[in-house]
Amino acid sequence: MTARGSVVLAYDPGWPRAFEVERALLEQVLAPWLRDGIHHVGSTAVPGLAAKPIIDVMAGVRDLEEARAAFAPLRALGYLHREHRPEAHSLLKPGAGGWWQQTHHLHLTEPGSDLWRERLAFRDALRADPSLAHEYAEWKWREAAASGDPSPYRGDKRPFVARVLAEAGITLRPDCERLSTGALRERQRVAAARGHGSPGRVTAPSPPGDEPPGR
Fold this sequence. Notes:
Strand content: 15-25%
Helix content: 25-40%
CATH superfamily: Beta Polymerase, domain 2
Structural class: alpha+beta
Radius of gyration: 16 Å
Number of helices: 7
Shape: globular
Distance between the termini: 17 Å
Number of domains: 1
CATH class: Alpha Beta
């Protein structure tokens, strides 16, 4: 990708294979904490869907607080922790550099959490309905930002995500309710950088790690 290239790419059939490679590594590292498996989520998990080339991974853990002990071994794989939501740990790979340089995004969360339900329901809805996936792809191509921009998309995908989740019986809570204080502050910083109102308002697209389901 060029320094200012679009962040959205046509579907790559290599994405599922990339996930399987990463899952094999993570299963070894996370074995002491795992519960209910490691899942490929986000847009790269939906066959045929255009996406940012970031492999989204969600791992179920028995106890979120105990899973903090996984940060050190995960760091050896290139993952760095960042604040996200109270019910999940968010780790980015590589942890340094801009969001457009990331290759993997990992969430650790307890099965049944809000994030767990949202990620699986959104993925499954797009997999099951090609017209819905096409609608989402059209939005992505239209709203994609470029490498170096403060946020991956110019527009807010939240209305689309909320509609899809509502059809699955899930309410996507407002950011002020679902994000941690640090993640909310970062979102407000991005809002100010993009000129979407004052830093006190939360109106801009989220940076990776703070996004609703799907990339």
